[in-house]
């Protein structure tokens, strides 16, 4: 079967994982720093906003799970944020042209962090409904914290399918675990599903209904 | 004595507790979702705001006490928030007419969550002054988080006696424990006191003084 | 050597520490309450904003380190905030005249809390790069939380060298530990360095570059 590669070549899988995590973290940090630039924040403000997007969701998850926040166990995430900061400062004028690239990386980040959140919660012996919420928090809370720090209403509450792609991926993951499917298959299918749902929603302008006001 | 019912019929007491907790959680979630609707947030935004009011204060308390956040131990609170979401979506037009009912439920929630916060802190071997602060956080922090997510100044900082009813209830609880009064009496009197203080403050437009500006 | 006094007279050192902590906490709480007064918050809002500045950064640090938040171990910080509240209420008109005094106390607080954050993180067996971040969080996060509660963009993201003084102090501390300098020397030099950097930056209007917008 195609998925046997994941067992035959663990180094290859590990490399792919690290590259995806690098791209995802970079994209999350970039989104924070670029929004900070729009608000005329200084370099420190940019770093904090970028770092908050990159690690905010996972940190909230880890605090609630009662484990040490993941970013304290390796300098990888601080270094990624510094890299993103340098990119924004040096290539400010060229960032917009690459918007589709950042969108792709950002969606990779959403898919990856959702899955990581689910797996970490299950490892901590949480039930699946908690794991799905934690997956969503891991993927989305960083962006909410960013918008709070920017003094804006969180964009994830008003536009696009973003959080719902994460929740749908979590439910799919649950379903595949219930079917007792192979672990690698479960992860890869969930990963692709989250990315596909988000891009389909963007392509066809699908969004959640707005709550009706009471007048 | 009247309070002996609490010992003669533990099932009855437990049922009342669950009903009160349902009403309180529902009212807290409703307040979050309705405010989100005013801001034109979508269904996801509404759910997050509702859930934040319902569990935000207790989660902050549990993180500081070093225990697992209470909402992760039972799906009750997620289900209550979903129920509140359905109510707001289906009955949007009728919500305003029931404003007095929601106010009553909300006040029940304040009283209940304050007492729960105090008791949980004491169980965690905290001193009473910490327990009173935790009671106030349990009752009020959710609403503050809601207003932060709505990008508004927290309403609890500007209007009405709300937090002070919680603090007054906490001091009363402490006083009754110091007097070594019966446990059921302590809880019931505190519960009634918090509700009474809030309604008297609303009825007679009593509020805390505003801080004077420096000019 | 001059620093031997720290070993010959531990009571003297302890007294200085308590006085500095009192001044720092008071200044942090005052900044929260005065900003709340500008926003016309009531007494409760003022207290929460003041308390958030005084304990917010250290609480975030302690949650991430997995230890009980420091303010729960002694009523000192609550009492300091109450004292600050009384000062603001009684002496509202005279506060502005003392602005230079508050600035000095606030800078003492920044230096002290940075060092306390670094030391506590090292005690918790964290690596030095985490300790420096924790020092910065201890000194700066309270002010960010205050501005979020005031519904304003955090001032630390837009003006002055504030956080960078904390980070520079942290790096200097690291360097001196690496040189295996005497502990008392390390602490005192870091303390003076942070205060000096901040005042030089204020005096010569040094600030971080603003992120360039993309147009």
From TrEMBL, chains A, B, C:
Compartments (UniProt record): Cell membrane
Membrane topology (UniProt): Multi-pass membrane protein
Coiled coil: none
Keyword annotations: Cell membrane, Membrane, Transmembrane, Transmembrane helix
Pfam families, per the entry: Gly_transporter
Domain Glycine transporter: 19-92, 104-176
One cellular component (GO) term of this entry: plasma membrane
TM ranges: 12-31, 43-64, 76-95, 102-122, 128-149, 161-177, 183-201
InterPro entries per record: Gly_transporter (IPR005115)
Family as reported in the entry's similarity comment: Belongs to the UPF0126 family.
Name listed for the protein in its UniProt record: Putative membrane protein YeiH
